[in-house]
């Protein structure tokens, strides 16, 4: 059985704003195994990106602050590391591909310079060695004429090619974990498919673990082994990918899946729409954060926030209601 490579427990992150303290992440706990692909899904503002940025110490302080939790990686707590220690982990052992490659790449430095920097910093390569390795990395992610393209600037690459460069940069030091934060959001569907296929191929070749953050459950279906669904800064459901799609238990997950068009349906049906708006978390919810939008809501949902409980060996859900029967789970 694969070892657990990352163990996050009770993570809480807040942001100080002029309107008040925003509770962005509220006691998130999850594990990542060696070689596993974990999908993290949920709508904008649910806390999925902030969770991973917190783990890597990339939360701007101020206004952000991690107020509780542990994130054990190879036996060490990332949240207790000094700035110098965490810098040696980022890029070398845990890499991140960000959402928008145009703002992630430095527009005044060549692609080659930006690829060579982590190789010289983390691995100690000479400039010549780093240049050769940078060309190999560009070839690995499918960019033609790689050696010639090293002297180009980010604006000379298309959106899909810039995202490939970001993936090459993230993989340059052979990390144990790759965190991809909605890397296909700004790309058209054909390029999205190419990027997903590229990541799957590199995962199989390099044996790294992946955390894929997205709001698109369709992408996760063909990529992840396990899925975490987040809402209001909480994990509200976690399951193996097959079980989540065939037997969703939380009303929010059911709504997300119902909003996806299906090609396997014989009879056409209307796409499901989740009414209402996500919560604004100026106070930590004492009730279920999804209660105002839930069609199964009951009295207990307004009084207590349900814990994340195991309902089968690979399935956890935070909901007081059994959505199949409409009755209380306990």
Structure write-up:
This protein is of the alpha/beta class and 330 residues long. It contains twelve helices and 14 strands. The protein has helices at 48-55, 83-89, 101-104, 111-123, 127-140, 146-149, 159-171, 189-206, 217-221, 241-246, 251-258, 299-303, and strands at 4-17, 20-33, 37-41, 64-73, 76-77, 94-97, 177-181, 209-214, 226-231, 234-240, 309-312, 315-317, 321-322, 327-328. It has an eight-stranded mixed β-sheet, sandwiched between helices. Strands 2-1-4-5 form a four-stranded antiparallel β-sheet. It has a two-stranded antiparallel ribbon with strand order 13-14. Strand 11 (309-312) and strand 12 form a beta hairpin. Helix 4 packs across helix 5 (127-140). The protein starts with a strand and ends with a strand.
Number of helices: 12
Biggest sheet, spatial arrangement of strands? 6-7-8-3-9-10-12-11
Give the fraction of residues assigned to helices. Answer: 25-40%
| Radius of gyration over C-alpha positions, nearest whole angstrom | 21 Å
Largest sheet: 8 strands, mixed
Number of strands: 14
Determine the strand fraction and express it as a percent band.
25-35%
Looking at the structure, what is the overall shape? globular
In terms of structural class, how would the helical and strand content be classed? alpha/beta
What is the mean predicted local confidence, pLDDT? 87
| Poorly predicted parts | none
| Series of H and E elements | EEEHEEHEHHHHHEHEHEEHHHEEEE
Terminal-residue CA separation: 33 Å
């Amino acid at each position: 059985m694969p070892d657990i490579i990352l163990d996050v427990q009770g993570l809480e992150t807040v942001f100080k704003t002029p309107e008040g303290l925003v509770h962005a992440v509220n006691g998130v706990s999850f594990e990542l195994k060696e070689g596993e692909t974990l999908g993290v899904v949920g709508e904008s503002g649910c806390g999925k990106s902030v969770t991973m940025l917190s783990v890597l110490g990339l939360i701007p302080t101020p206004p952000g602050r991690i107020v509780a939790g542990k994130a054990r990686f190879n036996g060490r707590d990332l949240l207790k590391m000094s700035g110098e220690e965490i810098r040696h982990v980022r890029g070398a052992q845990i890499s991140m591909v960000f959402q928008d490659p145009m703002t992630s790449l430095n527009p005044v430095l060549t692609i080659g310079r930006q690829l060579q920097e982590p190789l010289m910093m983390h691995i100690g390569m000479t400039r010549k060695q780093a240049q050769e390795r940078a060309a190999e990395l560009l070839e690995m992610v499918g960019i033609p004429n790689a050696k010639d393209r090293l002297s180009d600037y980010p604006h000379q690459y298309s959106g899909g090619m810039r995202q490939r460069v970001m993936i090459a940069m993230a993989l340059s030091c052979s990390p144990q974990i790759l965190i991809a934060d909605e890397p296909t959001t700004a790309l058209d569907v054909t390029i999205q498919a190419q990027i997903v296929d590229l990541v799957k191929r590199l995962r199989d070749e390099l044996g790294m673990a992946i955390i894929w953050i997205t709001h698109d459950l369709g992408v996760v279906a063909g990529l992840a082994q396990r899925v975490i669904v987040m809402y209001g800064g909480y994990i509200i459901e976690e399951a193996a990918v097959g079980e989540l799609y065939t037997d969703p238990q939380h009303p929010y997950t059911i709504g997300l899946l119902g909003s996806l068009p299906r090609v396997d349906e014989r009879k056409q049906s209307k796409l499901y729409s989740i009414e209402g708006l996500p919560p604004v978390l100026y106070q930590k919810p004492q009730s279920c954060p999804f209660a105002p939008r839930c069609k199964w809501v009951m009295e207990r949902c307004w009084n207590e926030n349900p814990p994340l409980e195991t309902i089968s060996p690979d399935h956890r859900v935070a909901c007081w209601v059994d959505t199949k029967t409409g009755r209380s789970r306990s």
